[in-house]
Amino acid sequence: xxxxxxxxxxxxxxxxxxxxxxxxxxxxxxxxxxxxxxxxxxxxxxxxxxxxxxxxxxxxxxxxxxxxxxxxxxxxxxxxxxxxxxxxxxxxxxxxxxxxxxxxxxxxxxxxxxxxxxxxxxxxxxxxxxxxxxxxxxxxxxxxxxxxxxxxxxxxxxxxxxxxxxxxxxxxxxxxxxxxxxxxxxxxx
Length: 189
Hints:
By secondary structure, the protein is α/β, with parallel strands linked by helices. Strands 2-1-3-4-5 form a five-stranded parallel β-sheet, sandwiched between helices. The two termini are 15 Å apart. It contains five helices and five strands.
């Protein structure tokens, strides 16, 4: 069943530096996914991007700020969620973990998540699989594809790496997004 509306795509970026190369790569991937997963033929809406570096002071503030609440909603409401992080100490950033910890069980239920890891070394290629995937699944997200890992040297032109990843990821992503949307439409009826 084709989607009656465009896929809502969001990128969540856990780099502690505002305006980082991780942010640029995540935004590029989110735009690509929004365009390619639009099975209904409607114009894909702009992908929303949450740059956690700009929200860092609010992560532990009480009460929560409106900006943080808006970011939490934008991420949870996404059909497809790119979760991007640089590698820090052979894992994902504490900033990203602090944000994800604000969700309760199944806080990302219904989202199809795509882990995106930026690393200086190919030795960290499994960070997305070993560390980030389990957290996303624990929060209820569906993670149907392998993580996309970009090396620092690839950040100047991510398109070829994204294209190679897309060749393997397209079918499982399309199935996951279509299955999630069909289930949501059935529940709404």
